[in-house]
Design goal:
twelve-stranded mixed sheet, 24 helices, binds ligand NAX, Rossmann fold, binds potassium ion, alpha/beta, about 40% helix, UDP-N-acetylmuramoyl-L-alanine:D-glutamate ligase, elongated
Length: about 550
């Protein structure tokens, strides 16, 4: 259940279910409507107390069909329901039409020409009793272009007449206007500001990428997944074409708890060298903090030994601040080369506080030449902004790049420009495609940071860690947090994690530590919170 689907993958699963006789469209639509009802009363318990009047906004496709089911079921529960339709009833798809007609036996359908939102709810004394629930069943995974201007205007009027807090808002599958493959609003006219935020968005079968990526979480409010009875493993097993379509399935990040555990059957009587030796390169005097943060994190995440390699003038500054982390002198690339003659040094971290300079570039190239597993972060990336190709030519499958948006833009300016252009049609390019293209060009693992962190192995695994909803960790926006992440990845690689697995586990632990610590967090706290996080997750 940790998968993130594209709209096309969802359609393919649905089609396979029809073709194999696992379900009919009408059955799925009924379960979808039922699923929304159950999910919203569970997630929003106050909604049941507010039981009064619901406004169901139905669209021209199957998303609208789900809305007619919801209208009927709410009516059966005693709600007063108004159904508004944006679209031509004569052109509804058969399943949506069937549910439109069933609703028609119960109540009216207000055509778009008669919505008159302002007249209804805009005056000092509303003409009509305001709804306590507004269900957005206009567009779901089928949205391919921005909302038409007249609909957009009606929805903005509705939002101003019934602002947030005046009525609960629940979206069926997607907040209308959001591209569900990217989490980006298809709304160039309004700079991506959709008409309203939802309190809850109910997805079907699995989460879609748009629920977790980009601005998706902000517009969805909260998410719930309704089971609509699709047996994906059975469909996949029986249908090679579906297997093919689901082969590049994106997963939500999870920690590898088995590998995180020390001791046990993998390491009877383990020695510290069984857990590797990470080396973190430090900047000069007054700029050693970032590397020290990374080194401490590498040790806390379980590397057997961690050495900070600092230039001579910074040695005393480092020595006064280190205890378990070891210290060695490294005055530049030749010293690093000598250091790496010791084969026990098996993972490197370069970038935090290193400085944007030719000396940094030389250190990076020496590190890459040693073929050690390596994290390149911060200045190790920015130092190549002028000539990214000079870096890419030396990268290999044991390297993890950890750019934030600014660093990504410097290394991959063309991909970045396409990624941030306001999309006019769907599916819009998502952070996943941007990261995939960048990783393919670089030829190594890429961890593209952000609230939605995307981890890509060229031609391989794609993982998303989204610090949203119950995993929101706003305190992570603090100086030095990125240095800690880089150190954690290096520490895990020293322990023997594959680079992509190290990036995934580190991204999860990093957010988990922030969630566990809570408000007031500073970067120093992240590594210190790791023991509690590891214990709580059963490691
Ligand atoms: N895939 C599944 O397994 C299920 C899907 N269901 C529902 O069906 C939805 C998908 O249905 P559809 O494929 O019919 O798509 P939608 O109902 O999302 O959209 C309807 C159609 O509108 C057109 N359209 C796209 N953008 C538009 C715009 N800006 N203005 C006007 N028209 C536009 C497109 O041709 C699209 O097919 C899902 O989101 C979900 O709510 C459910 O009924 C249950 C099961
Ligand atoms: K919707």
């Amino acid at each position: 259940m940790n998968e993130l689907l594209t709209s096309a993958q969802m359609r393919a699963i649905e089609q396979a279910a029809f073709d194999s006789g696992q379900a009919t469209g009408l059955e799925l639509m009924e379960r979808a409507g039922q699923g929304v009802i159950e999910a919203m009363f569970e997630a929003l318990p106050d909604l049941a107390k507010a039981k009064a009047k619901a406004l169901i906004l139905c669209g021209p496709g199957n998303n609208g069909g789900d809305g007619f089911v919801i209208a009927r079921l709410l009516h059966e529960m005693g709600w007063q329901v108004s159904c508004f339709l944006y679209g031509d009833p004569g052109r509804l798809q058969p399943d949506a039409k069937a549910n439109h007609d069933r609703w028609g036996e119960i109540g009216a359908v207000v055509p778009f020409a008669d919505w008159h939102v302002r007249e209804r709810w805009g005056g000092a004394v509303p003409v009509e009793q305001p709804p306590s629930l507004i269900v957005d069943s206009l567009f779901g995974t089928g949205l391919t272009r921005p909302l038409a201007r007249d609909l957009d205007e009606a929805l903005r009027n509705l939002a101003s007449c019934l602002p947030e807090g005046k009525a609960w808002r629940v979206a069926v599958d997607a907040p209308s206007g959001l591209c569900m493959d990217s989490g980006r609003p298809l709304d160039p006219e309004n700079d991506g500001e959709l008409p309203s935020r939802q309190d809850l968005t109910v997805s079907f079968h699995r989460l879609k990428r748009g629920h977790m990526l980009g601005d998706g979480p902000e517009w969805c409010g909260r998410v719930a997944v309704a089971d609509i009875g699709l047996n994906q493993p059975a469909l996949r097993a029986a249908r090679p074409a579906l297997r093919e379509q689901l082969s590049d399935m994106v997963q939500l990040a999870e920690p590898d708890k088995r590998q995180l555990r020390k001791g046990g059957e993998d390491y009877p009587g383990a020695h510290k060298y069984d857990y590797g030796h990470a080396v973190v390169l430090s900047g000069g005097p007054g700029r050693t903090g970032a590397a020290r943060l990374a080194a401490r994190a590498a040790l806390r995440v379980g590397a057997g030994l961690v050495t900070l390699a600092a230039p001579a003038p910074a040695m005393s500054e480092c020595a006064s601040q280190l205890t378990a982390v070891m210290l060695t002198r490294c005055n530049g690339a030749p010293d690093l080369g000598t250091l790496l003659e010791d084969e026990r040094l098996n993972a490197l971290c370069l970038g935090p506080g290193l400085g944007v300079s030719a000396a940094t570039r030389d250190l990076v190239l020496t590190a890459l030449g040693s073929r050690r597993r390596c994290v390149l972060d911060a200045d190790a990336l920015t130092a190549f902004a002028e000539r990214p190709q000079a870096l890419f030519a030396h990268l290999h499958s044991g390297v993890v790049l950890t750019p934030h948006a600014g660093e990504f833009a410097r290394l991959f300016p063309d991909i970045w420009a396409r990624f941030i252009a306001c999309p006019e049609q769907g599916p819009a390019i998502s952070k996943i495609e941007a990261a995939q293209e960048a990783a393919a060009r670089a030829g190594c693992i890429l961890l593209f940071k952000g609230q939605d962190t995307v981890i890509v192995e060229p031609g391989g695994r794609v993982v998303v860690h989204a610090a949203c909803y119950e995993r929101a960790a706003p305190w992570l926006a603090t100086a030095g947090a990125g240095d800690v992440l880089a150190g954690m990845i290096a520490g895990l690689m020293a322990r023997g994690f594959w680079p992509v697995g190290a990036a995934e586990t580190a991204a999860w632990l990093h957010a988990e530590a922030a969630i566990s610590f809570g408000p007031g967090l500073i970067a120093e706290d992240l590594a210190e919170e790791l023991p509690a996080v590891l214990r709580a997750s059963g490691v």
